[in-house]
Amino acid sequence: MSTTTRSSSTARYLLRALLLAVLVSAALAWPAHAWQAEAGLAALGAAAGVCLLGAAFARVAAGAIGGLDPSPESAALAVQAGIGARLFLTLAIAVPVLVLEPFPRIPFAVFLGVHYLAQLGLEVFVSVRELSQNHGPTGRPARASQPEGGPPTGSLATNSEDAEADSAEGRADNR
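The structure corresponding to this sequence follows.
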């Protein structure tokens, strides 16, 4: 698929991530205010921002990695790499915030965890849906690698004689 389709897929994902962050923040606004007043709301907003930044980075990283090879294995690897990249970016931002303490530590860490899990759920849901539709995070169909005139790569049988022999051995074992 074209770059336009890939970027519109990324834009849709980021819009969903933003909507999810707003919904989670709205659900946590009253507890945040009751727990730490204005500082709790600031910690909630900062946690949402850190997780959104991580989600955006993960999606871009997954698209870049998945664009290198259109195979289904590469698409799955790109999703995993994106999730890992999001974890490390989120930690790279959260640790200095926790050390420097511009927000109360415990509320920030709790809200960061809730937002992170919500964004992780969204990312896994979207990625599984894309992979099951035989599309990776690159927005284009993934093709299985298959040698010319042979079985797909990863097959146990390399030719029809081996397949027949394996089949015959299996029947003999079952008797």
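Residues 3-66 form the longest helix (64 residues).
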